Amino acid sequence: MNYIENTYVCLAAPLLLAILFLRKDARRLLIFLLAGMTACLCSAYVSAYLAGVTGTEAITATYEIVPVVEEVIKFLPLLFYLLIFEPEKKSPISGALLIAVGFATFENVCFLTSYGTADLLRLLIRGFGTGAMHVVCGMVVAVGLFFLWERLWLRAVGTFALLCFVITFHAIFNIFVNQSGAVFWIGSAFPLLLMLAYLVFLHRKVDLS
Amino acid sequence: MIDQIDNGIQIAVLVICVTAAIFKAAKYRSRTWTLLAFFYGSWLLGDIYWTVCLLFYGKTPEISVVSDLSWYASYIFLYLLLRHTSPPEELAVRKILPFLGPVFVLGMALFFMRLGAILNNLIYAGLMGLLLYALIRRLTERRNRCLPALILVFCLLEYALWTASCFWNDTIHLHPYYWFDFLLTVSMPFFLPATRKAVAA
Q: B52: which chain A residues are within 8 Å (Cβ-Cβ)?
């Protein structure tokens, strides 16, 4: 039996203490990281609840329920920050990335506690793959949110569309990583390849800062 | 088998289209091309999701919300593309003729809802109504009508495809659904030149 809330407490405690002592930007970035981990914990509960209510099998839930819940809950801390603090363009983009990183980190820790730490190669692929997938999703939402629309209602509609976009991407990733053999490798490597392609071909042309 | 071939061709065409749109978006740093890339990308992801579910699990998704979300997103991006390429003075004009779009959509939605999936049909109707309203408004302006005309053809093909799927019959080898889906695939690359024209105008 895994008690992920206990794991969460252990990981969050030092971050919380650090947040008390840090100032301004560093504090804000650490809060984003912690928000990502908290979002991961909440989405685990909500996904399990919805899977139970709808009577969905665990494997089916990973590609039909989990992506929807995870992407929506991951977006909530960013939405809260945007609505309450009305920040400049630059900080929410790094915030969205850090939320994604916090989310992926906690998800990987949960994966470790469930499946053990014996197979380093698989863990390496899993770690980079999941990390890249969450970062890609976070980046798409953040970039779309700030650079594509100028009016509030267009931003709301467009952000919904972007969320739908990343949910499907996430679902496809989950289907691939649930398989074995070459399909698992391709699925895990794909977000990494997307990030690499972005860095090689588009990074200079699209300046996110 | 024909289903897989149909999906495979559509995915291949969309991969080429989305790559072209991304490179145009990066080259010109253009919001218009970015929206087109997102339209292609959303449609592509919906197709891939549907196809891999069939491929790995041998069944279409039980809760088909994920692929539907992706297709909702593509209609929204198409609407935003249309809106973004419209001159501001056109957006301010109010006419009666564009309301034909939502009326048609409502009628079709009532027809489809007889088969169930009420919420899903309502969402599609809302998005299609918005899209048809915007594109008929653009078509009445008599200038730069290439992109809205193409989107109109695309929407009508979608409705033909959905209607054909309501009368599914396994005894017909090449069901009209596949003809319309193939035509839809053929129409996809034409969004690239139509968008280029809209950007140039």
A: 172, 175-176
Residue A73 token pair? 């809950």
SS (HEC) of B20-65 = HHHHHHHHHCCHHHHHHHHHHHHHHHHHHHHHHHHHHHCCCCCCCH
Domain-wise residue ranges, chain A: 4-202
pLDDT band at A209 (very low <50, low <70, confident <90, very high): very low
Q: What is the mean pLDDT of residues B181-190?
A: 93
- Both structure tokens of A70: 């995870």
Q: State the sign of the Cα–Cα–Cα–Cα dihedral A35, A38, A43, A44.
A: positive
pLDDT tens digits, residue range A126-155? 888 888 899 889 888 887 777 666 677 777
* Cβ–Cβ contact B126 with A under 8 A: no
B/e letters for B32-60, b = 16+ CB within 10 Å, e = fewer, are bbbbbbbbbbbbbbbbbbbbbbeeeeeee
Residues of B in contact with A64 (CB under 8 A): 61-63, 65-66
Which residue in the set B34, B65, B80 is minimally distant from A68, CB to CB? B65
Token pair recorded at residue A97: 């990335």
Q: Per-residue pLDDT tens for B93-123?
A: 677 888 888 899 999 989 888 887 788 889 9
When scoring A164, A190, A201 by the number of chain B Cβ atoms within 10 A, the one with the most, hence best to mutate, is A164
In chain B, which among 41-100 make CB contacts under 8 A with chain A? 41-42, 45-46, 48-49, 52-53, 56-57, 61-63, 65-67, 69-70, 72-73, 76-77, 79-80, 83
Longest Cα separation, chain B: 52
